[in-house]
Structures are given as structure tokens and as C-alpha cells.
Specification:
- By secondary structure, the protein is mainly β.
- The protein is built from 1 helix and 25 strands.
- The protein has one domain: 6 Propeller (Neuraminidase).
- 1% of the residues lie in helices and 41% in strands.
Length: 314
């Protein structure tokens, strides 16, 4: 029996068991996921293999990046198929080819900027690429409350944002994406909101009442897909506190909820969505930090499912 989440034109079948790995390989957890122009899927994992690549049917293709990353956090693939990996363990952003050849590094490994200085980088979290100019937008992140704008060749252009809960301020700008019109969407996680800017940092809109938005991407359908993290500590077993994907139109109206009222590993459930992307067919891929948020606390601790595919039906 198949499991379907969402409704109407935003209905998705859960592809149970999607993603095969070679014997002995694990993801541990998957903080983010991205898709290239061929609809190959790149899981940025916290296992021993860095970036793990599947075809859209879930067949394992390759893995690269072992022993490179301090702590995998965000991944984004540009229109030219350049793969950007955001490492909040060593405070860098790296650009790779699809085969894992290092092309550019932003930041200095293990040398963070002063906390909340506004300078790049201190525990950066995510990256987005302009569809028009190729400029890079980097959310920075846990140790800064800032968005940085870089040219495609790595030259710093400008930055905006500061710590706070007011308009244009951030409490953990956790992920970032752009749409076809170059609007910039920032998942301001600890403020439970998404803020929308133009490419020069002018605030255009604020969407409130979104539970811990952690991953954010705009689909080809124009909708904004938000991965909502699980609750913390005493509320992990509470219903409706995150552990789902929520879909919004570009005006901030909620149009669909994908998931279950409760966290779990059954079909149609999530544990802790952290990263999200969509392929050219409108299928959704969700990466979860299920080890950090739940698996390590179990008795005995165990790796939980951390990568799911939802196949669009509508």
C-alpha cells in the first residue's frame, strides 16, 4: 500500500526505501541535499564519505569528500552544476565540480571571524546562487547573524543583517534560497519565520509562525518548500511542532503540509527535516538530522533514516 502526503495538485507518494548504499556505507545523517541538471541527487552527509550521489531512482553513483569536511551543513548546486558545500565545522564554503574537484574556497579553514562581527564566516549555514547574475548568497549563521553576497568568482560584494528579532535582523539565518525573480528567502530559524529580501538586502516581506524553518528551496512550480525541524528536548513527542515540510506560495500563504502530526520513521513521517531540494519533475528530497536530534538519545543509540524522496502525483 502506498502512502501519500499533501493533497490535490500538491500530493506526493512516499518512495519508501529510496536510496541504496554499498555494503558498509552509511549516511549517519543528512543535513542537506541538492540536485544537479541531470537530476542526480547529492546527499551532504555526516558519515565517513562526505557527499554521496544517487541517480533519481536511488541507485548509488559515487561518493567524494571523505576527510575534507569539519561538519557538513549546507549544499547547493548552481545553474552551471557547480557544487557548493557549506561547512560549519571549519567555517568555510567550498566550490566543487560534480566529481569532487575543489575549485574555490571562501573563508579560512578553522579561522572563524569574531562572533557576531558581521564578517565572514563564523559557523556558516547555507548558500544560494542567483539565477540571473550567478552571485552567491551565504547565510552566516550560528556565530553571525548576517547574509553575505559574493560574486561568482568569490569577490565579496556586500553583507546585511545583525542579531535581533526585528525586521531584517536574524536569530540563526539557517538556510537561504532564491527564486526566478532573484528574491532572496532566508529561513530565520529561531525566530520561526522566513524573511524575503531583494539582492541588495532590502526587506520585502516577512512570513511568521513557521516552526524552526531549517531548509528552504523554491520549486519549478514557484512554490516555496520549507523543511521544519523537530521540537527540542521535552517537546520532541508533541504533535504539530515541526517534523514536516510546509509549502507556501510566494505571497507567504500556506498551500500544503507534507508529513504527519507526530515525528517518526513510518511512511509519511519525518524525524527532523533540515535540508530540502526538488528535481525537474517536481519530486522532493528531504535530508534530516535524525541522529543529532533523536538517534543518539535512544537506548541504545542508533542511526535513523535521514534521506527521503517524495514523488509528485499532482
Amino acid at each position: 500500500m502506498t502512502t501519500v502526503v499533501g493533497s490535490g495538485a500538491l500530493s506526493f507518494e512516499v518512495a519508501e526505501g529510496w536510496g541504496s548504499l554499498p555494503d558498509g556505507m552509511t549516511l549517519k545523517e543528512t543535513p542537506d541535499v541538492a540536485v544537479d541538471s541531470k537530476d542526480n541527487v547529492y546527499a551532504f552527509s555526516r558519515g565517513d564519505h562526505g557527499v554521496v550521489v544517487f541517480d533519481r531512482d536511488g541507485n548509488f553513483l559515487k561518493a567524494w569528500g571523505a576527510d575534507i569536511f569539519g561538519n557538513a551543513h549546507g549544499i547547493c548546486i548552481g545553474p552551471d552544476d557547480a557544487v557548493y558545500c557549506v561547512d560549519n565545522g571549519d567555517h568555510t564554503v567550498r566550490k566543487f565540480s560534480t566529481d569532487g574537484e575543489l575549485l574555490m574556497t571562501l573563508g579560512t579553514r578553522d579561522k572563524p571571524s569574531p562572533r557576531f562581527s558581521g564578517d565572514a564566516f563564523n559557523l556558516p549555514t547555507g548558500l544560494a546562487v542567483s539565477n540571473k547574475s550567478g552571485d552567491l548568497f551565504i547565510s552566516d549563521g550560528y556565530g553571525n547573524s548576517t547574509i553575505h553576497k559574493y560574486s561568482t568568482d568569490g569577490e565579496h560584494i556586500m553583507s546585511w543583517g545583525e542579531a535581533g528579532i526585528g525586521p531584517g535582523q536574524f536569530v540563526i539565518p539557517h538556510n537561504i534560497c532564491t527564486d526566478k525573480d532573484d528574491n532572496v528567502y532566508v529561513a530565520d530559524r529561531e525566530c520561526h519565520r522566513v524573511q524575503v529580501f531583494d539582492t541588495n538586502g532590502k526587506l520585502l516581506a516577512m512570513w511568521n509562525n513557521i516552526w524552526k524553518p531549517s531548509g528552504i528551496r523554491v520549486g519549478a512550480d514557484g512554490n516555496v518548500y520549507v523543511a521544519e525541524l523537530i521540537a527540542d528536548a521535552y517537546y520532541n513527542d508533541a504533535p504539530n511542532f515541526g517534523h514536516r515540510v510546509t509549502v507556501y506560495d510566494t505571497s507567504g500563504n500556506r498551500v500544503a503540509v507534507l508529513g504527519d502530526a507526530y515525528a517518526g520513521e513510518a511512511a509519511g513521517q519525518f524525524v527532523s527535516p533540515h535540508g530540502i531540494c526538488l528535481d525537474s519533475h517536481g519530486d522532493v528530497y528531504v535530508g534530516e538530522v535524525s541522529w543529532t536530534m533523536m538517534g543518539r538519545t535512544l537506548e541504545p543509540p542508533r542511526e535513523m533514516r535521514s534521506l527521503q524522496k517524495l514523488v509528485r502525483q499532482g
